[in-house]
Model the fold of this input.
Amino acid sequence: MGGSARAVGSKGHVPTFCRHNRLIQNCPICSREQHLEMRPVVSPSGGAAQPRAPRGSSPAQTATRSGSGRSGGRSATGLRVRKLARGVEDGYRSELVPGLKSGADAERLAEELAFAATRLAVLDAEPPGLYAEVADSAAEIEERTWLAFLIAYLGPLDAEDPFAAIEAARTPWSSGQVPELAGVEPGPRGAHVNANGERTLHAYRAWAARSGSQQLAFTSEPSWTAQRRFARVFERLSLPGFPRDARFELLTLLGHLGVYELRPGALQLGGTGSVTTGAKRALGIGDPMLLERRAAQLAEASGLPLEALDLGFYNWERGSRATAGMGLAAEPDPAALETARAALGL
Done:
């Protein structure tokens, strides 16, 4: 006899699969939505599955890792595990953010999207600190581009002087030298890791040299639209130690500060960074194509630039606001906040 498309249970019932392609009783999302009790995970031997112990671990070590005896919120490697406080489910629903079930989470997302959009407006009109040097059209374009890279790579601090660490470390592009980064404190969005030394900076210089200059590397084909240029350069900037979030921030800065014609046509989501993770949680989907489509719909409905979702999702997922060079007192523009809240039905 031919096999059925779906296996039949022992009592003759056809199991129900959810939209996540799991048995509905095994899906933590759909079982909760339909008020079903989840089945325990069962091992092949029929017993309740336990976390697999790393090689060389003793039973006591395994119990410590898998039980509640983990102290101080730290993992076995000594890294602190940060748990995000999620809002309580209160019946909130929105087609724009189907992953959210809490009005408090939606309110916080609206605030972070509005803050990110406000920052972009400030960069366009009156950029503060080192951003103003990047925006200075009278300055040499190679120096402006290099400074923008250092800002994106190191990241502004959440401090009274957000650019202090970058200012102290920076070197001129014309010197041919890279900054000495030992002990430099990166900002919340900075990509620099001290263990990597200056590897990423040397890789960036080599990348620009292959095109003849930074300007040629970023402009590429003059006939390209701003969106196509953003996408192509983003792809080419895949350097060691320079992940998705830092690359997107660099191209956003260069575009909004008037260095090059660059505008994103997509968020370029992917990997395990905070922006992608936050987008998946809020938009309720993991498929890259659908994720980008829902992000574009959210931006359009909110009346915000698509690139505002980058910092917006980052801060929302992080659980606290990285001010990204705007200063500790910066707040979202009330009009942008009202637009975002209205789009989310708040």
